[in-house]
Amino acid sequence: MKKLYMIWFTCLIGLLITACYDDNGNYDYRKIGEVQIDGLEETYECVAYQDVLHVEPKVTITDGSSDLEYFWTLNLTPGSSTTSEKIKIELDTIGRERVLDYPITEKAGAYDLTLWAKNKANGATSIETVSLSVVTPFSEGFYLLKEINGGTDLDLHLKDGSYVMDILEAKDGQPMPGAPVSIGLDPTYSFINAQTEYEITKAVTICTENDVRISNIEDMSVIYTYNTMFLGEIPTGEKPYYIWRNYFGVGYTCDKGIYFSYQAPSYQLLGTGKFGLPVLVNDSEGTKPSFYGVISSGCWFFFDELKGRLLYLDFNGSLHTFKDEDEEGKKQPYPINGIPHKLKYFGINYIAADKETNGYILFEDENNVDKLYIYHMVLSTTNIYNPIKKVIEVDASSKLHEADLFATYESTAKVMYFVANNQIYLYDLEQQVEEPLNPTGMVTGEEITYIKNYYWKEDAVTGDNFDYLVFATHQNGKYKVYMYNILGGKPNGGPVRVLEGDGKVVSMRFVDKDMKIDSTIPAL
């Protein structure tokens, strides 16, 4: 598109010229023809490579003349998650008529759409700027990570009920090899593209049992794989677990350690998106992270199986331990270091009224598999002392002993969900009692493959928020995902949505066009 090089000069002239007059000797002044723009919406939204932006404003001049000149310009909104001071922003002319019909080919992001209307007779100019949100077919909806035909693929179910199936096969000709492990989301991922320029995008991250894929959410193209995501030598023999975003970087965890890539585009800190060496405790001690971990205050909390201790990776990429004693130096009855148990699940819960982030770890006794313990902790990055509040031994009769799928209600009630022998249960973490759940509308006999409390609570514009209890099932090579509203920690009524497709769902992520670096995203 043609660059508008004289735009600031025109603007300056328009601001300086506020009146004109006819000098016929009697000095009879009259007001100039002022330009008025009406009929613009505050915000427009378009799908890239699909929509044509149509805008038809009303433009008037006070003296009734109609000799006007128009310029429509479009540029990335400064300070948006898709821009940085280190990235050049160019002001482009996209139209020269009052009515704008512009095919959207821009990348997903937030843009300023500006109409400049100038009275040719005297140069008086009116300028109106509104917002344009550009999304792609992959910008909003529920991503379902699934196992299909022995490999890993991805389906996207959009909020309007439409869907895009088998995305990886469509891009690559085949699913990713190996069974799926996890899916993550980075609302502001920075990397260096093929033109050796910094680029910022939303990214979907996938870990399989033997590979990793970081994809650009705009077109699902590959940014990095396991073989290209390291700065130096490629590690061998690792089992990938999960890739996630915190405030100032991207974390990657596997069974051999934890990695960190420092970057925060929203704070003008760009990075390559690649990983160096594993992060060490006290610059010397390695770790063996558990698969499950949680994010709190922008930090990643996990259990180190190597030394049986709780650690957290802070938002600057440093690893921290906790002391076994309390603030007065008194040893606590349950040490946070040297825990001789096997972790089965790590969940999180935040009660706004308490202003506490609760962590719940389900441990299996290392010496007696018939014994289970639930460690209740308060997770804080400002506390270096023992965070354990209490430890509960699970009753021998509890179905938790037979469970293989777990989740917590992350945002309200202190409850855990689990699946044992294909039956869903609710476990009250305060009262230590459980009850079976039989959600309305679920088909009996389907294998339950995934359970999760999933929510989005940051849509301030349309209020299109949700808080669901989600169950995925599998039968005869096909999946169903049931989504329920929650009341008192339990499914309320029938499913709000049921998603269907081929394969077996093992995890999911929701993406919204307005997600930012500090958006609250459910844990792994």
* Mean of residue pLDDT values: 88
Q: Quick one: how many beta strands?
A: 37
Strand order of the largest sheet: 2-9-8-5-6
Q: Separation of termini?
A: 43 Å
Stated plainly, the CATH topology of one domain is called: Immunoglobulin-like
Strand count, sense and barrel status of the largest sheet are:
5 strands, mixed
Coarse morphology: globular
The CATH homologous superfamily name of one domain equals Immunoglobulins
Alpha-beta content class: mainly beta
Fraction of residues in H or I helices:
under 10%
The Rg value, from CA coordinates, equals 28 Å
Strand content: over 45%
Tally of separate helices: 2
**Poorly predicted spans:** 1-30
Summarize the structure.
This protein has two helices and 37 strands. By secondary structure, it is mainly beta.
Give a verbal description of the structure:
The protein is built from two helices and 37 strands. A hairpin with a 6-residue loop joins strand 26 and strand 27 (372-378). With 524 residues, the protein is mainly beta. Among the domains are: 7-135, Immunoglobulin-like (Sandwich), CATH 2.60.40.10; 415-510, no CATH class. Helices cover 3% and strands 49% of the residues. The model is unreliable at 1-30 (pLDDT under 50).
